[in-house]
Design brief:
Layout lengths: L2 E2 L3 H10 L2 E4 L6 E2 L2 E2 L3 H10 L3 E6 L6 H11 L9 E3 H12 L7 E5 L2 H9 L3 E4 L3 H4 L10 H4 L5 E6 L7 H16 L3 E3 L5 E3 L4 E3 L1 H12 L5 E2 L5 H10 L1 H5 L4 E5 L2 H10 L3 E5 L6 H5 L9 E3 L4 H4 L3
Parallel strand pairs: 1-16, 2-5, 2-14, 5-6, 7-8, 7-9, 9-10, 10-13, 14-15, 15-16
Antiparallel strand pairs: 3-4, 11-12
Helix pairs in contact: 4-5, 8-9
Bound molecules: pyridoxal-5'-phosphate and calcium ion (CA).
Protein name: 4-nitrophenylphosphatase
InterPro entries: HAD-like_sf, HAD-SF_hydro_IIA, HAD_sf, PGP_euk
EC number: 3.1.3.41
Length: about 300
């Protein structure tokens, strides 16, 4: 059963016990565009105690550079690019390092600018994505649309993430690439979060868009790059020798059981679930022992507040 962080001793024990703190972002650090209570103070406290602090988000709509801007904007300063891992970056790295897609191949994107920017930074050409021919006001579906009739023969991978500019044309072109050439073009999903949390309600998440093109094409993604996939954690471990050698020195903090908590657990890290996002206390306490988070807390800021 998960231990509740509800006293000074327990909060202090967590600060003392771990050297690496991996934070999910939405629902832990911020909610939408608002920083959660005492988060900046908690991060300061951890850094003063020489802890390594890393941020791991499944939101593919932004690039790492975009995230640096967001941290500043909500009042968290001094974060560097190597401390931020997003599913857009993880997907781009997967395409380069695991698929080893040649740089003269193109990537079809069903998603937002974060994916395009990370791929372009690695030297790839993207198509689809934010192309105004697919998103401009007044685009209505045309079964003979130029992009539907002229599939690009150089597309060597398809990547699907969340887009709020979704339409039938984009879904249909994505499906065409997925069934093209005997379904041989690799199909990469940024993340499988079924829902997308906004300040007062849950909306459609990337996983639900992926399901749609998956069902239509009769294919499952060849890789899901965000949490809980371990390729992102392996990349983090590669940059942090101490965590690689002793995963038990790491604590994964998140708000979702099937992504964040599984991500930490599968990688040998202890886990802390905070109740400022997706899950409720009842859901946490109902988890079987083998998958229950190590700890849970009302909010991340309790680590600061309880130790003052
Ligand atoms: N995907 C999208 C598009 C989002 O906007 C969010 C949250 O804002 C997420 C995923 C979940 O992100 P995180 O892993 O930081 O909770
Ligand atoms: Ca989250």
């Amino acid at each position: 059963m998960s231990l509740k962080v509800d006293s000074r001793d327990k909060a202090q024990e967590i600060i003392d016990k771990y050297d690496y703190f991996l934070f999910d972002c939405d629902g832990v650090i911020w909610r939408g565009d608002h920083i959660l209570p005492k988060v900046a103070e908690t991060l300061d406290l951890l850094k003063k105690n020489n802890k390594t602090v890393l941020f791991v988000t499944n939101n593919s709509t932004k690039s790492r550079d975009d995230y640096l801007g967001k941290f500043e904007k909500i009042g968290i300063s001094g974060i560097t690019k190597d401390e931020v891992f997003g599913s857009s970056y993880a997907s781009a790295v997967y395409i380069e390092k695991i698929l080893q897609l040649p740089k003269d191949k193109k990537v079809w994107v069903l998603g937002e600018a974060g994916i395009e920017k990370e791929l372009q930074e690695l030297g790839y050409t993207t198509i689809g994505g934010t192309d105004p021919r697919l998103t401009a006001d007044g685009v209505t579906f045309d079964p003979d649309h130029e992009l539907l009739n002229n599939l690009d023969k150089d597309v060597g991978a398809v990547i699907v993430g969340l887009t709020m500019n979704l339409n039938y044309l984009k879904l249909s072109i994505t499906m065409q690439y997925l069934i093209k050439d005997n379904k041989s073009i690799p199909f990469i999903a940024t993340n499988i979060d079924s829902t997308f949390p906004t300040k007062d309600k849950l909306l459609i998440g990337a996983g639900s868009i992926i399901e749609s093109v998956s069902y239509a094409s009769g294919r499952k993604p060849d890789a899901v790059c965000g949490k809980p996939n371990q390729s992102m954690l392996n990349a983090i471990k590669a940059d942090n020798e101490g965590l690689k050698a002793s995963p038990g020195k790491g604590l994964m903090v998140g708000d979702r059981l099937n992504t964040d908590m599984k991500f930490g657990r599968d990688g040998g890290l202890d886990t802390l679930l905070v109740l400022t996002g997706i899950e409720t206390e009842d859901r946490v306490l109902a988890q079987e022992k083998s998958v229950a988070p190590t700890y849970y807390a009302d909010k991340l800021g309790d680590l600061f507040e309880m130790t003052q």
